[in-house]
Design a protein that fits this description.
Layout: H1 10-20, H2 25-28, E1 32-37, H3 44-55, E2 60-65, H4 87-90, H5 93-100, E3 104-107, H6 110-116, H7 127-130, H8 139-145
Parallel strand pairs: 1-2, 2-3
Helix pairs in contact: 1-3
């Protein structure tokens, strides 16, 4: 099963999630669980995963995300949705944790993510985390994909 967040419709994303997530009650019942994921884009996969873990008896679910919050769409090869559909663009970490029904949620900071590469940071694009695009975003994309400040 491929990446569910890039499926074109919500129904397709949810069908993909059902196919790739399986929980075992005899493994999870009464356990405290830590989920490590690379990112949270819309929150669809995370919500379904947390519900499945709770339904299988997990008493606590904690999430750790190995990137900063995705707050801006990517225009450079990853087909993310418009900014208003990215959960971290419109919600705080505490609000996201509440929506996902997790006991705790933490993201890796942009600084820590870049430091982990042990490379000069100038060569990395962080636009999906910061909104600082390395080239100008065409007006049509700005109007249709970004939440413009009034």
């Amino acid at each position: 099963m491929g990446r569910t967040f890039i499926q074109p419709t919500q129904a397709m994303r949810e069908a993909g999630i059902r196919m790739k997530l399986n929980t075992l009650r005899d493994v999870l019942d009464g356990k405290r669980v830590v989920v490590v994921d690379d990112s949270i884009v819309r929150g669809t996969t995370s919500r379904k995963l947390v519900k499945a873990l709770r339904d299988a008896g997990a008493t606590e679910v904690h999430m750790r995300i190995s990137s900063p919050p995705v707050t801006h769409p990517c225009f450079y090869g990853i087909d993310t949705d418009s900014q208003d559909r990215l959960i971290a663009a419109t919600h705080s970490v505490a609000e996201i944790a509440a929506q996902l029904a997790v006991d705790s949620l933490a993201y890796l900071s942009e600084e820590a993510m870049l430091a982990a590469t042990q490379q000069p940071t100038e060569g990395f694009c962080t636009a999906c985390f910061s909104g600082n695009y390395p080239i100008a975003v065409p007006d049509k994309l700005r109007r249709t994909k970004l939440m413009l400040e009034s």
